[in-house]
Each structure stands twice: as C-alpha cells, then as structure tokens.
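User: I'm writing a short methods note and want a consistent example. For D-aminoacyl-tRNA deacylase, I'll paste the sequence; you return only the structure tokens, no commentary, since I'll be parsing the reply automatically.
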Amino acid sequence: MRAVLTRVSEAAVTVAGETVGAIDCPETGGLLALVGVSREDLADWKPRAEKMARKIAELRILDGEVSVADAGAPVLVVSQFTLYGRTAKGRRPSWADAAPGEEAEPVIEYIIERLRERNIAVESGQFGAMMRVSSVNEGPFTVLVET
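Assistant:
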C-alpha cells in the first residue's frame, strides 16, 4: 500500500464538474492523501490499511512538526491506482501491480473509516471516477508512505 501525502491549505476533488470532496484549512493545514492499493496488499489487507490510517493520522508533517490528529486538521483521501504504475520498461506504464478496483475500494473505504474513528474530518474522491484534483500545496511538503 502506498500513499503520497501532501501538506495543503486547501484541496478539492470534482467529478463531472461537481465537487465531491473538499478541505479548506488555511489555519491548521491539512493533508491530501493519494492512496494506492497493490495486488500484494489484498491477501492480508486490514493490518496494512490500519497502519496506513495510523501513518496518515500520526505522521508529524504539518507545519510545526505536528500531526493531523494533534492539529485537528482535515484530510482529503483520493484513491490512486496509478501509484503502482511500472515505468522501468518502454514508454507506457504497466498497471499490473495495482489491485483491481472492486477489491481496492473496500480497502480505501476502510482507511477512511479508521481516520474518522479518530475524529479526523475526512473528505474523499469518488472511487473509480475520472476526478479532477486541485490543491494548494504548503511548503511544498510531500512524502511517500509505504506499508
């Protein structure tokens, strides 16, 4: 499982011109979390998903080295199968390592649920849709998290 976490002051996801998820947090900052699930993750995904939710909530990557949980900051979670694109050969990425959508969706939803259980305000994209993601990066500060 992989996530690209970007510190933002605002971020939004639109589908067919309609906003489906947005965070606006100029005071505390927040995170845009692009989360991908691989085929390898599917065998025993709950512990990995729990760990990913914990990392998203507890990594001290907001301004002042505080976490989302400490700051009461929001998170926008967007599923991102392209994080598993293989580009070593040729000019066209291979998506063979990405989990199929119907199997990845429950994993992403589980991560969102675990974050909400921590009283973190979570918005999300629309799984499987063509999404337009916009963000105002702060720092810029972006990290790759793998579980």
